Amino acid sequence: MGYKVAVVGATGNVGREMMQTMFERKFPADEVIALASHRSVGKEVSYGDDQILKCQDLATFDFKGTDIVLSSPGASVSAEFSPKAAAAGAVVVDNTSHFRMDPDVPLVVPEVNPEAIAGYKKKGIIANPNCSTIQMLVALKPLHDLATIKRVVVATYQSVSGGGKAAMDELFNQTKGVYVNQSAEENRKVFTKQIAFNVIPHIDKFMDDGMTKEEWKMVVETKKILDANIEVCASCVRVPVFIGHSEMVNVEFVKGISEDEARNVLREAPGVTVIDHHKDGGYVTPAECAGEDAVFVSRIRKDPTVKNGLNFWCVSDNLRKGAALNTVQIAEILASDYLGK
Ligand code: 2RA
Q1: What are the structural domains, with CATH classification, of the chain?
Q2: Model's pTM, two decimal places?
Q3: Per annotation, catalytic residue among 55, 98, 236, 245
Q4: How far does the centroid of ligand 1 lie from the alpha carbon of residue 96, in Å?
Q5: What is the spatial distance between Cα 10 and Cα 68, in angstroms, rounded to a whole number?
Q6: In what residue span(s) does the Semialdehyde dehydrogenase NAD-binding domain sit (predicted)?
């Protein structure tokens, strides 16, 4: 017998990717229900190669009998409906930011802290971290085990798909517009500045200390998931790429670690693919990682300005490992190790 799974936010970028990922990985689902806001009721979404699901109304859906909810609506929608689903007996794996820092909600990257999943029993909710945190931690975990990380300085280059479908449309329309002399302003709704042929050093809202919330997430989520002693200094930047987040990561360790040791341990690490030839083209770019599951690590090299320092570049499909795949991996562990059908 398999599971009854509801996907909340089924028409969004991540919701669609969740259903695709579940199908590809043969998630043991007997029934999959697509849920969306009232205005998307009846809209069709595909599950696998040949199944079309009609979206049902999240607001009136009765979660009783649903085993697992994969949730990726807006944070305020999740704040309202995830506790309702949990109260009806489902376990919610939530991709929004709403529950991530709740001490009674585990925040999980399966390659890093799968044991934390057991904490779902407190509230019936497991949180999926932010996309930029997930890919960085998949790469940092084996390095931390080897040489203990003291401090991380990271600059991100994040694709527009992290901002949803409207953000992707904005990049597309502004790019097209440039060739027909249309001002970018005419096609600007989501971003604060032109995104086509530009980069924007601002993701999510500004906080009192000048950090953006996206940067803050990388700091606090790293502490919650990997190690509270790690200091993170993050700068998050939106770039005109459709899919795939990139990060240039500088790490300072407590113990000495050579480039080769880092490369070898990363080669063995789950979820990581090392492509690192120190020559033209010997690295992975976001255009090559779209549709892939791995976190790709390249450009591993010493930082000669500190005692135990390394730099590396990592890219990953933010809709897959940064969102849908990580959520489905959590659900897989939940199904096999905890719910036991
Ligand atoms: C972004 N971090 O890329 C968001 C998506 N979760 O905007």
Answers
A1: 3-129+323-339 (3.40.50.720), 132-318 (3.30.360.10)
A2: 0.96
A3: 245
A4: 10
A5: 14
A6: 4-120
